[in-house]
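Hi all, a correction to my earlier message: I attached the wrong file for Glycosyl transferase family 2. Here's the right sequence:
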Amino acid sequence: MPERLQILVSAVNKNIDSLLENMNISSDAVIVNQRIGEKAPDIEEKREFKGKDILVLQRNEKGVGLSRNTALEHSDHEIIQFADDDIIYDDGYVQKVLDEFDNHPEADLLLFNIKAQEGRETYWNTDFAKVNWKNYGRYPSYAVFARREKIIDKKVRFSLLFGGGAPYMNGEDSLFLHDCLKAGLNLYRTTVVVGHERPNESTWFKGYNDKFFFDRGVLYHFLYGKMAKVLGFRYLFKNRNIMCNEMGLFKSVKILWDGVDHGKTLEKV
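and the right structure:
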């Protein structure tokens, strides 16, 4: 029986053999390894790891959205997942994922539990339920498992504007799920746990500075349109004791609103 699950890994400057071992990969996979700071030709190679088919794409490029889109274009399995290179999968994750999709044919995408490192938690599913416009923004890309044909048919892709290696900071995962909902795909969350995140330093968060607030404003333009400034103010007001201690609420809001205005001048890519 052919494999049904394929993990799509976005990596940067990694040794592939070590990466496969560290992630505990036990399914087929596509790995896009972006070689930042290196000058070498692009390479595409097929290899086996513990009896599984691994496609490795070595690329001289940067940007997590580009990496995920490249992996998606080279995928060919029924079920796919967008993974980071610091995820460690539990033994038996493949069958857990397949069973959950088989038990829920109504789901185009399932958001599984992958435990984040302490201090970086944004979600933890405690029930099975539909994900909607009110709660989709909590989920990182690595929680997303999807029926590949649904993503391809709706032409949903990751933005090249946001995330590591892109012009603006994180948000590519929220924008991707936003576009999935907009395309009419059915998203559900599940309590099934399939792995955890290895502790490491954030590649994008450098404090609540000008860039943080400005880039958040740009993202809010693409997520919320005409409501971006209102929801941006609400977001900062709600988190003012954490985010605005240094700059103050009103300066932080002004910078975020400047980002919203800048977003209006950009073409979505």
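Sorry for the mix-up. DSSP finds nine helices and ten strands in the chain.
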